[in-house]
Write a sequence for this structure.
């Protein structure tokens, strides 16, 4: 697996943890440890997304991610086309 695929896979793992913790906190809003974990992984996700986009281009279009010149969104492979 190349560096781009490894980074993208790590992004997906952290994003999954954020979604899972988000759902848990919806039903357990007073769980301080879960909230701390959510905040930790949210920061990790933000940092990793920024690093990924600086090297490989935007992960999302429609105003969610800035792009370097030239327009990077059309570069292949698309994130969902990468073989793991």
């Amino acid at each position: 697996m190349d560096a781009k695929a490894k980074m993208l896979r790590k992004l997906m793992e952290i994003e999954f943890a954020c979604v899972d913790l988000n759902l848990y906190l919806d039903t357990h809003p007073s769980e301080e440890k879960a909230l701390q974990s959510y905040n930790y992984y949210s920061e990790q996700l933000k940092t990793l997304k920024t690093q990924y986009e600086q090297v490989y281009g935007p992960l999302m279009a429609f105003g969610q991610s800035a792009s370097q010149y030239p327009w990077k969104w059309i570069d292949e492979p698309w994130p969902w086309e990468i073989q793991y």
In short: Residues 3-78 form one domain. The helical segments are 3-27, 32-56.
